[in-house]
C-alpha cells in the first residue's frame, strides 16, 4: 500500500509539477519514488484521490485520470473554462466519480459517470453539475460512505443522499463549525469530521445510524486538544491502520508548530458533557419543571446533573457516583415557572484510574403545567318581572323575568365568554356559563302573571 502526493519542485528556478509515491511501510529514510514529472505545469491548486482502482487528480483547472503505475501525465479528461476555479476534493459512489471545487463565491460538485464499455472516465467538454452550494459556502471535502456523501464546507457539515444514477440531494447545515471542514474518516456507522472543536484542534463525530430526519444526524464533539489554542486548524484525520485510534493533524501558525495527534489507547478525557436542547413540551405555556432522574453506570467516576435556564445560567442539582445511586430529585432551580429549560449532564472520569469513566444511558424529566387554574363559582340571583333597587325605585315590566332567563340560556348554549361582575366586592372576571337553574317562587295573581324566582348560576373562569 502506497501513499501518493502531488507537489512542485524547482526546475531551472521555476516550480514544476511532480507526483510521488511511497510505501506506507517506509520510514523517514525511505526515498519516495518519482512517478510523474511535467515541466510544463506549475501547480497552483491541486488535490488527488485513489478511487475505483485509479488516481483522479485535479490540478489548477484540469482533471486527470491515471493508474497507480503511471509514469507520464495523460491528457486531462476535463478542463474547466474558468481558470480561477479551485478543485478541492475527489470521491466516488457506486456509479460515478465526483470532484468538488469553487470559484469566487460559487461552489459546486461535478459528476463523472464511468463508461459502461471501458470503465474509464469519459473525456468531457462540460461536466455534469451534481450540486451547487449557497453563495459564499465553499466545499473543501467530500467523502462517500454507506450510501451517504459527507460534504465539508467553509460553514460546516452537510450530508447528502446518493441515488442509483449518481445524482445527489444534500440536506441543510447539520453542524455549523468554528473552522472549515477539511476531511472525514469512517468506522462502523460513524463519521469523524476534521473541523475543530470550539476553535481548537479536534474532530466531531457523526452517527450515521441515528437519523433525526431531513438529513440531520446525531453528532458530538469527540476528540480535541483542549489547550486553549484556537489559532490552529484541523486539516486531516484518519485511523491508525486496523486500530480504532484516530489521528488528526493541525496546521502550523506564525508562532507555533502544527501537530500530529493520536488518540490515547486507554486514557479518557478528564470530563465531558451532554446538553439537551430547550424542552418546552410543544407548548408556550409556563411549566413547573420539578423532577429529574438519569440512568447509567456510575461505579467509576461521577456525573453531575444540571438545569439550564433561558439565559444559559446553569444550576447544579445532584452528583451521581459510586456512593450516590441514581435517584429522582426535585429541581428547584431555576425558581418559579419557566416556558422552557435544558438539562446538562457532566461526566467526570475516575479519580484513580484514568482509563475508566461513567456511562450515561438516558434521563427522564417531569413537569406540571403552570397556567392559572379555572374556578367554578355558584351563586343565586333574583329574577322577577318587577324589582326594586337599593333606592326603592321599581324597574321592570311584565315578562321581563322570562326575557332575562332566555338571554342567559342563549349565552349558556353558545358557550361564549362573558364578563361577570360582583358589585358587592368589585370583582370582575371573564367566564363561561356552565349551568343555569331557575326556581320559580311566586304564583300567578289575577291579571299579573307573577313570573319570577331565583336563578342559581354556575360559572367557570377562563
Outline of this structure?
The chain is mostly beta strands. Helices cover 3% and strands 51% of the residues. The strands form 10 sheets. Strands 12, 13, 14, 15 and 16 form a 5-stranded antiparallel β-sheet that branches. The chain has a 4-stranded antiparallel β-sheet with strand order 4-5-6-7, with no helix packed on it. A 4-stranded antiparallel β-sheet has the order 8-9-10-11, with no helix packed on it.
In words, what does this structure look like?
The chain has 462 residues and is mainly beta. It contains one helix and 36 strands. The chain has one helix spanning 400-414, and strands at 2-11, 14-23, 33-38, 46-51, 54-59, 62-66, 78-79, 86-92, 96-103, 106-113, 128-132, 139-145, 148-153, 156-162, 168-170, 175-176, 183-187, 190-194, 202-211, 217-224, 234-239, 246-250, 259-262, 271-275, 287-297, 302-308, 314-320, 329-330, 342-348, 359-369, 376-384, 386-388, 394-396, 418-422, 427-440, 452-461. Strands 12, 13, 14, 15 and 16 form a five-stranded antiparallel β-sheet that branches. A four-stranded antiparallel β-sheet has the order 4-5-6-7, with no helix packed on it. A four-stranded antiparallel β-sheet has the order 8-9-10-11, with no helix packed on it. A hairpin with a 5-residue loop joins strand 19 and strand 20. It is elongated, with a radius of gyration of 37 Å. It starts with a strand and ends with a strand.
Amino acid at each position: 500500500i502506497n501513499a501518493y502526493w502531488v507537489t512542485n519542485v524547482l526546475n531551472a528556478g521555476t516550480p514544476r509539477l511532480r507526483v510521488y509515491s511511497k510505501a506506507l511501510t517506509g520510514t523517514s529514510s525511505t526515498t519516495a519514488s518519482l512517478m510523474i514529472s511535467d515541466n510544463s505545469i506549475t501547480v497552483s491548486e491541486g488535490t488527488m484521490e485513489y478511487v475505483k482502482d485509479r488516481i483522479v487528480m485535479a490540478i489548477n483547472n484540469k482533471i486527470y485520470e491515471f493508474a497507480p503505475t503511471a509514469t507520464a501525465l495523460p491528457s486531462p479528461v476535463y478542463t474547466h473554462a474558468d481558470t480561477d476555479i479551485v478543485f478541492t476534493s475527489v470521491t466516488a459512489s457506486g456509479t460515478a466519480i465526483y470532484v468538488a471545487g469553487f470559484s469566487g463565491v460559487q461552489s459546486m460538485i461535478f459528476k463523472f459517470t464511468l463508461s459502461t464499455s471501458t470503465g474509464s472516465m469519459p473525456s468531457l467538454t462540460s461536466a455534469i453539475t451534481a450540486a451547487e452550494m449557497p453563495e459564499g459556502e465553499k466545499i473543501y471535502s467530500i467523502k462517500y460512505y454507506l450510501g451517504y456523501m459527507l460534504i465539508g464546507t467553509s460553514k460546516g457539515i452537510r450530508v447528502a443522499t446518493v441515488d442509483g444514477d449518481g445524482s445527489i440531494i444534500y440536506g441543510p447545515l447539520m453542524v455549523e463549525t468554528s473552522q472549515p471542514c477539511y476531511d472525514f474518516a469512517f468506522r462502523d456507522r460513524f463519521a469523524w469530521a476534521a473541523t475543530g472543536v470550539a476553535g481548537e484542534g479536534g474532530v466531531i463525530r457523526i452517527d450515521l445510524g441515528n437519523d433525526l430526519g431531513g438529513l440531520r444526524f446525531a453528532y458530538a464533539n469527540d476528540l480535541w486538544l483542549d489547550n486553549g489554542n484556537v489559532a490552529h486548524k484541523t486539516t486531516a484525520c484518519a485511523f491508525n491502520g486496523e486500530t480504532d485510534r484516530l489521528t488528526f493533524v493541525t496546521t502550523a501558525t506564525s508562532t507555533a508548530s502544527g501537530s500530529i495527534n493520536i488518540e490515547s489507547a486507554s486514557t479518557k478525557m478528564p470530563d465531558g458533557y451532554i446538553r439537551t436542547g430547550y424542552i418546552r413540551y410543544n407548548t408556550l405555556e409556563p411549566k413547573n419543571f420539578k423532577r429529574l432522574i438519569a440512568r447509567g453506570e456510575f461505579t467509576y467516576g461521577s456525573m453531575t446533573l444540571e438545569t439550564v435556564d433561558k439565559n444559559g445560567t446553569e444550576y447544579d442539582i445532584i452528583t451521581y457516583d459510586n456512593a450516590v445511586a441514581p435517584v429522582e430529585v426535585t429541581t428547584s432551580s431555576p425558581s418559579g415557572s419557566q416556558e422552557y429549560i435544558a438539562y446538562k449532564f457532566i461526566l467526570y472520569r475516575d479519580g484513580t484510574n484514568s482509563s475508566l469513566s461513567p456511562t450515561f444511558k438516558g434521563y427522564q424529566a417531569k413537569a406540571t403545567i403552570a397556567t392559572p387554574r379555572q374556578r367554578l363559582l355558584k351563586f343565586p340571583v333574583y329574577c322577577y318581572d318587577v324589582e326594586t333597587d337599593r333606592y326603592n325605585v321599581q324597574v321592570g315590566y311584565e315578562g321581563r323575568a322570562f326575557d332575562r332567563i332566555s338571554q342567559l340560556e342563549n349565552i349558556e348554549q353558545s358557550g361564549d365568554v362573558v364578563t361577570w361582575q360582583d358589585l358587592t366586592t368589585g370583582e370582575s372576571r371573564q367566564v363561561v356559563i356552565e349551568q343555569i337553574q331557575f326556581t320559580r317562587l311566586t304564583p300567578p295573581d289575577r291579571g299579573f302573571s307573577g313570573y319570577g324566582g331565583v336563578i342559581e348560576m354556575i360559572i367557570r373562569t377562563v
